[in-house]
Design brief:
Length: 297
């Protein structure tokens, strides 16, 4: 199997490269930066490509592309987020017109104004979002499904594991005097996704034949307080989550729309965010494990 991976210098793309090379696949890894450490890519060949700038002039011949590259931030400059996440996805599609596209999307495409309760794939995209990241991920999904050749869209939520660039660093950044302020009450359920399981799902999707949209998460949701304590403990930090009712934080979020406790963050932590993964299990052959900390390697 010949595979191209975008976003290979990132958390998810690196895990996909390592899983694919371990399976004996021939992998071309793409990132934006000029160079990358081959060990992080499982020894895959590396090429630099800014997907927002243009299509690839000389794409390698591959059977499938796992498209992980994205501006993965809820507070980024909107123009840059749209450039990478939508225009960049267009450039990926036109660079590889004749092969299977596995688009790594996000559970952020579900309605941020309502709890996500064992959501099924048809419940998203919706017409309203709280930030450019979610809106651009939704637009990119629509594009991939409209023009891709047997495309697969994967929607993970709260990805954790070795090399995490997003969730754990963000939590650690927000620790003050041994406390982490968290919107809500800590009792709501959340679907977490081990990065190794997501990488396996990407390979299953790349190998085919199933096409369509699939939620990807660990086998069962967990209470968010349990997840936060586990994540922080696995990083070796002693931190106590301190819960603040969402109603008290809402006025602050209105004044500071890009602050640490913005409306998107409140929407992610204060209400249930769980995914139904039946479609991935039944049609992709995805076999998730439970959420454990530290994450399985
Ligand atoms: N982490 C999560 O919890 C989570 C949850 C749901 C969905 N996702 C999705 O999973 C995918 C991967 O996320 P991640 O956590 O691995 O993010 P990440 O660690 O920040 O990696 C982002 C990757 O995208 C590349 N990239 C960014 N802008 C680019 C551009 N203009 N041209 C080419 N490459 C560019 C980066 O390359 P350089 O580093 O070389 O600049 C990097 O390889 C994203 O699509 C994200 O939406 C992640």
């Amino acid at each position: 199997m010949r595979l191209a991976v975008t976003g290979a210098t990132g958390f998810v793309g690196g895990a996909v490269c390592r899983a694919a090379t371990a399976a004996g696949w021939a992998v071309t890894a793409f990132g934006r930066r000029a160079t990358a450490d081959g060990r992080d890519l499982g020894g895959a060949a590396y090429r630099s490509w800014d997907i927002g700038a243009a299509k690839l002039a000389d794409p390698p011949e591959v059977d499938a592309v796992v498209h992980c590259a994205a501006s993965a931030t809820d507070t980024g400059v909107a123009a840059e987020v749209w450039r990478t996440n939508l225009l960049g996805t267009h450039h990926v599609l036109v660079s590889f017109p004749d092969c299977r596209i596995v688009h790594v999307s996000s559970a952020s495409v579900y309605d941020p104004f309502r709890p996500t309760v064992r959501a099924k794939e048809h419940e998203a995209p919706v017409s309203r979002y709280l930030n450019a990241y979610a809106a651009a991920k939704a637009a990119a999904e629509r594009l991939v499904l409209a023009v891709g050749d047997h495309p697969v869209v994967l929607r993970p939520h709260a990805v954790y594991g070795t090399g995490d660039t997003t969730l754990l660093p963000r939590l650690l950044e927000n620790v003050r005097a041994g406390r982490l302020l968290v919107p809500g009450n800590g009792r709501v359920l959340v679907s977490m996704t081990a990065v190794t399981a997501l990488a396996r799902a990407c390979l299953l999707a790349a190998a085919g034949p199933a096409a369509g949209v699939f939620n990807i998460a660990d086998s069962e949701p967990v209470p968010i307080d349990w997840a936060l304590r586990g994540l922080l403990a696995s990083a070796g930090v002693s931190v106590r989550p301190a819960y603040v009712p969402a109603a008290l934080l809402a006025p602050v979020a209105r004044v500071f729309p890009k602050g640490r406790l913005n409306r998107y963050v409140i929407s992610q932590f204060a209400v249930e965010r769980t995914l139904d993964i039946t479609a991935a299990v039944d049609r992709l052959g995805y076999r998730p494990g439970p959420t454990v900390f530290p994450a399985r390697s």
